Amino acid sequence: xxxxxxxxxxxxxxxxxxxxxxxxxxxxxxxxxxxxxxxxxxxxxxxxxxxxxxxxxxxxxxxxxxxxxxxxxxxxxxxxxxxxxxxxxxxxxxxxxxxxxxxxxxxxxxxxxxxxxxxxxxxxxxxxxxxxxxxxxxxxxxxxxxxxxxxxxxxxxxxxxx
Length: 162
Fold this sequence. Notes:
It is built from seven helices and five strands, in the order E-H-E-H-H-E-H-E-H-H-E-H. 30% of the residues are buried. The chain starts with 6 loop residues before the first strand and ends with a helix. By secondary structure, it is of the alpha/beta class. The protein has a five-stranded parallel sheet with strand order 3-2-1-4-5, with helices on both faces. Strand 1 (7-11), helix 1 and strand 2 form a beta-alpha-beta unit.
């Protein structure tokens, strides 16, 4: 039988849940001898909406976008470090745009078998549910999706890898 998982994509958004998802993705990649890719998306759609709503002026939007791009690099470097500590290579991808669309595009372009995401945030309203980009991506990608929970167990699994 062919391996069920050859390529894993972990979506990293800077939350604690996404770092836990990255640790679990490292464990899975090792167990299945799968290729691992980490994706961080700078949500330029949200930035555009802040500009349109006049919450930001153009210069503030550009400065905030640079800050977000630096965050992307920092988190992707952290995921690279997590993988390297366990003897695993990871391809890191930083993208800008609509989060849901960038995730879907990455899944298709890299022929991903499994999307790994952190635990979804609590839905406080219908509006929150509609704007949760990770959840929207989860529902629309053409591959299986794993939502990672139980941070303590994941840490133990990750820590036990040699």
